[in-house]
Amino acid sequence: MLALSRFIDRFNQTLGKAVSLAILLMALITFLVVVLRYGVGIGWLALQESVMYLHAMVFMLGAAYTLREDGHVRVDVFYRRFGVGGQAWVNIVGTVLLLFPVCVFIFVMSWDYVARSWSLLESSQEAGGLPLVFLLKSLIPMFCIMMFLQGIADIIRYINVLRTDSEPR
Predict the structure, then answer these.
(1) Distance CA 96, CA 61 (A)
(2) CB atoms inside a 10 Å sphere around CB 148
(3) Which residues contact 9 (CB under 8 A, 6 or more apart)?
(4) Single pTM value for the model
(5) Using one digit for the tens of pLDDT, what is the confidence trace for 77-96?
């Protein structure tokens, strides 16, 4: 089981690092949009929409990597005072009672929305916009799947922590 956890971790780490390149691309495209718009007087809607697509990709696909790196905002009063075992229990319970239900709920509720978009091969409503709205909407269930998988990897890791009384990473 620990091998499964490591595989999911590596996959999310690779995906997270690949997606982080989109941040640089977003900055460069935004710079280009500004130069074209205010320097040359050309507005290019597809280029502007591509920044939105990249932004969505960074957040939706980078969330599982952030979870793996324990980078999400944690509001706690007691967690940091707990030992390794107590923190492991909090993480397991939080994953099972909060993360998994939210991922399942979002996945189920978005399924028809995304499927309808795919059936239409939905494109931008704006003239000159990107014809890939269905791909943008597909990030929603992908987010749920990646977060759920990372939750499984975390549970496996924290069960190992409880068994061995060692650090989780």
Answers:
(1) 21
(2) 19
(3) 68, 150, 153, 157
(4) 0.86
(5) 788 888 889 989 999 999 99
Q: Which residue has the tokens 């997606």?
A: 19
Nearest alpha carbon to residue 13 among 157, 153, 138: 153
Three-state DSSP state, 84:
helix
Q: Which amino acid is at 113?
A: Y
Which residues lie closer than 8 Å to 64 by C-beta, 6 or more apart?
12, 15, 16, 143, 146, 147, 149, 150
Domain ranges in the chain are 2-164
165's tokens:
């009384």
Q: Using CB atoms within 10 Å of the CB of residue 30, give its burial: 0 to 12 exposed, 13 to 18 middle, 19+ buried.
A: middle
**How far apart are the C-alpha atoms of 132 and 141, rounded to whole Å?**
16
DSSP state string for 23-85 = HHHHHHHHHHHHIIIIII----HHHHHHHHHHHHHHHHHHHHHHHHTT-S----SSGGGS-HH
